[in-house]
Amino acid sequence: MHHELWFTRFLNDYLAAPANAILGIVGWQATNPQRPWANYISMEILAALILVVVFAMLRSSLSMDKPGKLQHMMEAIWEFLNGEAHQMVGHGYGKYVGLFTTLFIFVLVGNLMGAIPTLESPTMYPAVTLGCALIAFFYYNIVGISAVGIGKYLAHFAGPNLFMAPLMIPIEIVSHLARPLSLTIRLYANMLAGEQVTLVFLGLTYLVVPAMFMGLHVFVGFLQAYVFAALTMIYVGGAVAHEEEH
User: Fold this and answer.
1) CA 229 to chain CA centroid, nearest Å
2) Which of 76, 190, 213, 218 has the least C-beta neighbours within 10 A?
3) Of 129, 126, 153, 131, whose CA–CA distance to 142 is shortest?
């Protein structure tokens, strides 16, 4: 888990200086300035590059008359998430589907990278899953405030009446702060466990049993990407529901 992957080695060999410069801007310093790139960062960058290439290919081959397999797959993902968002968010759900789809696809690609030899899932590192969780956290709060205004949005923390406010406000604050922690740990723990189980069986057996666990890894990757996107939908739905109430 701690060995340097080939893509990490490439970045450290040729792009160590830019990494140190970026860290210097934010006031950080790498533990080893000669090798500042960590596996989880390089895998996250690789996942982003994969998505850029895939969507560049998709854009160049878009067709209304003869859609290709890649277009069919992306349309199926979009339609599925669009339907889920309709159920979980409700009124005005369409303007949020882009974020749900982006999170789902990025997490899915990150999860499935662990099934490719010589690569690792960036989502089995808490720093990566925390970053995705914070995006979801800030997003649903921002759209909630935009929907009803900051005053009305904060008012729902007090509960149905002022008598309940002293009890409800701390409960609501803890509940909301626990959400990014829950998203982070759920995705990170599941992907780390799946990766370790797969590696153990790869080292003990050959072909059939590892193939079964690789299939399980792919299934868990899809499931966890869906759970992450679905929970984000639920949080957004709860935040913007106050728009209809008021």
Assistant:
1) 8
2) 76
3) 153
